[in-house]
Specification:
- The radius of gyration is 17 Å and the shape is globular.
- It has a single domain (2-268), classed as 3-Layer(aba) Sandwich (Rossmann fold), CATH 3.40.50.
- Helix content is 42%, strand content 19%.
- By secondary structure, the protein is an alpha/beta fold.
- The chain has helices at 40-46, 73-87, 99-110, 141-166, 173-184, 188-200, 204-208, 227-236, 252-255, 257-268, and strands at residues 2-7, 11-18, 24-29, 51-56, 92-97, 116-122, 214-219, 240-245.
- The chain is built from ten helices and eight strands.
Length: 273
């Protein structure tokens, strides 16, 4: 079932809530420039195993409201906190992919891990997506600036180019069109603003504050979030495990969806390793 939760500023956040009566909940935070439907192949499987699957559309993306403000990590994590409180969630697993992983990291630091039992970071854009003077990993700042410029000048072509780098396995033309349409649902200004946040903000201190069991999932062939970022997350989060996927790119949740789902379930059930 789908519904909206109104957060501060009268912004309505769309929530897809599958199997709402189940006791064990997993909250999914999608990456840029997608929405909750990217986790279709997790929702398909996990509800049948007795999990409540809750997918949030980040403000500016998917079915959520698209204001012209609020695309910093503080505000985006505050949105998550307000949804968590509105739904009365406790002892849930928080899963964030890519930018969703960055938002999850800020949530853990800013909101003191409120309600979270386990954390899952999937190809997370943390602690910094771009290279910095004291951080030699990540992507070049100029490439993000180019993405922002392309968003304002030819967003459809930018999305096509992004989709070509997202998955490692070959995907059908129909699947590629589906992925493209998800990106088009976002607002152009939100798409650019979140990309600017990659430049403006870092998450080193947020990662150091994480104390709950954390699973880091990373595709070896990721062309968007380099493998080195997962290594840094593993180093900074003291209670973390790193699972690498040899046949996956950025879209590890689809490239190796069966293995992904299996490892996720084993982690949530404390049966990993």
């Amino acid at each position: 079932m789908g519904y909206f939760v109104e957060v501060s500023g009268k912004v309505k956040i769309y929530v897809e809530d599958l199997n709402p009566n189940a006791e064990k909940a997993i909250v999914f935070l999608h990456g840029w420039p997608g929405d909750h439907t990217l986790f279709e192949y997790q929702f398909d499987k996990l509800y049948s195993l007795g999990y409540r699957c809750i997918g949030l559309d980040t403000r500016g993306f998917g079915n959520s409201d698209k204001p012209c403000w609020g695309y910093d990590y503080n505000t985006l994590s505050d949105d998550v906190r307000e949804v968590v409180e509105a739904l009365g969630l406790r002892n849930f697993t928080l899963l964030g992919h890519s930018t969703g992983g960055a938002i999850a990291a800020r949530y853990m630091g800013r909101h003191k891990e409120y309600g979270v039992r386990n954390l899952v970071l999937v190809a997370a854009a943390a602690p910094s997506l771009i290279k910095r003077p004291n951080f030699p990993y990540g992507v070049e700042k100029l490439s993000i600036i180019q993405t922002i410029n392309d968003t304002y000048n030819d967003r459809p072509q930018m999305l096509r180019n992004f989709g070509e780098r997202f998955f490692f396995k070959n995907t059908s033309e129909a699947f590629n069109d589906w992925f493209f349409q998800i990106g088009l649902k976002a607002a152009g200004w939100a798409t650019a603003a979140v990309a600017q946040t990659w430049i403006n903000e870092v998450l080193f201190e947020d990662l150091k504050k994480i104390s709950v069991p954390t699973l880091i999932m990373q595709g070896v062939h990721d062309k968007i979030v380099p493998m080195e970022l997962a290594d840094e997350q593993h180093r900074l989060i003291r209670n973390s495990k790193l699972a690498t996927f040899e046949y996956s790119g950025h879209g590890v949740f689809y490239d190796q969806k069966d293995e992904f789902n299996d490892i996720l379930v084993r982690f949530v059930e404390n049966r990993l390793y």
